[in-house]
Design a protein that fits this description.
Layout (H helix, E strand, L loop, with lengths): L49 H13 L7 H8 L6 H17 L5 H10 L3 H38 L4 H9 L3 H11 L5 H5 L4
Protein name: Transposase (putative) YhgA-like domain-containing protein
Pfam family, one: Transposase_31
């Protein structure tokens, strides 16, 4: 299944990837991959269960412009009953749309849900929107702590690139807070960076 922006231009025969190595030829299985390029498939030819159709169309347009197709995709899903399995699917589905749908913002998805008349899924969407806000807030707090620690360490000790990289890789708020607390009493920079190990 391929849904990239460009046309597929790589060999489908597995052995073609090893043609320069005569030593490997006898060990390389000879088979052809099945390529299903969504860019070459008309929407009318995408048939099956509504969840399958919605997922395939979402993959097809995720990188090429999903926003104009959202209402249609969601309208089809709106005819299905919302049970726990559907709720779990919608949660993953909406998260995928927000993470992979090029140019699709949270507000766009919310409007598409509302205009498709998909009322029951609004609750699932709101839960995801709240989770994303909390995650964004947490990431913002971590980034703020990282920048604070970098700035203060640079002023107190001077900062080398290894220490800066270590701080930027740290994603535990408690450890970053502990390092900031140690900064004021620490003599060498290593004492401050120790909690980040």
């Amino acid at each position: 299944l391929y849904h990239g922006l460009r046309q597929w231009r790589f060999p489908l025969n597995f052995t073609a990837y090893f043609q320069d190595s005569d030593l490997l030829q006898e060990y390389v299985p000879d088979f052809n991959s099945v390529l299903y390029d969504l860019n070459q498939v008309d929407d009318e030819k995408i048939k099956g269960h509504l969840i399958y159709v919605a997922a395939i169309k979402t993959l097809k347009y995720a990188l090429r412009g999903l926003k104009p197709h959202l209402k249609e995709i969601l309208k089809e899903l709106g005819t299905l009953p919302i049970d726990e399995r559907m709720r779990a699917f919608l949660s993953s589905f909406f998260k995928y749309i927000l993470s992979a749908g090029r140019g699709v913002r949270s507000e766009d998805l919310g409007r598409a849900i509302d205009s498709a008349g998909f009322k029951e899924s609004r609750e699932v969407y709101m839960t995801i929107a709240e989770e994303l806000k909390l995650e964004g807030k947490r990431e913002g707090e971590i980034a703020n702590d990282q920048q604070t620690l970098i700035r203060l360490l640079d002023k107190k000790f001077g900062l080398n690139s290894a220490a800066r990289d270590k701080i930027l890789k740290a994603d535990n708020k408690k450890k970053l807070d502990r390092a900031i607390d140690l900064l004021f009493d620490a003599k060498p920079i290593d004492e401050v960076l120790k909690p980040l190990d």
